[in-house]
Structure formats: C-alpha cells, structure tokens
Amino acid sequence: MVPAAELREIPFFAALDDDALADVARQVEVRDYRPGEYIIYEDDRPFGLFFVLRGRVRLSRTAPDGREPG
User: What is the 3-state secondary structure (H, E, C) of the chain?
Assistant: First the structure.
C-alpha cells in the first residue's frame, strides 16, 4: 500500500476524489528495479500499470532475427 498523499502527487491520479484515491492506494505495490534489470519482456502479458517515480526506463523491441532494430 502507498499513502494516498504520495499518489496525489502523480498527475494521473490528481483528479480522483479522496475515496477513489484511497481505493487505488490499497492496491498499489511499489517495486524497485536495479539499473539494467528487466521490468517486463516483450511477449509477457502485462500484470499492471507502471509509473516511473525516479530514474529512466529504456524500451526496446527485438527483430525477428533476434537483434534490436535501430
């Protein structure tokens, strides 16, 4: 669970009323990832909605031959 006040700082949640925000806060799970660690792989089914609070995320796709295009 994340304090609702922290969620309110994320623009995506800013318009929610206090009750709705409290409902969301009960379901949020904070995860920390190390640099270079994968969050999700290209063919995985997503298991949630992600917000990056600090740091950066690199998105990449793999070509049919296994290389990253570009």
Answer: CCCHHHHHCCHHHCCCCHHHHHHHHHHCCCCCCCCCCCCCCCCCCCCCCCCCCCCCCCCCCCCCCCCCCC
Quick one: pLDDT band at residue 35, thresholds 50, 70, 90?
very high
The span from the CA of 70 to the CA of 50, in Å, is 25
Q: How far apart are CA 37 and CA 22, in angstroms?
A: 30
Question: pTM of the entire structure?
Answer: 0.63
The CB-based long-range contact list for 56-62 (8 Å cut-off, 24+ gap) reads: none
* pLDDT score of 1 more than 90: no
Buried b or exposed e, range 14-31, using 16+ CB within 10 angstroms: eebeeeebeeebeebeee
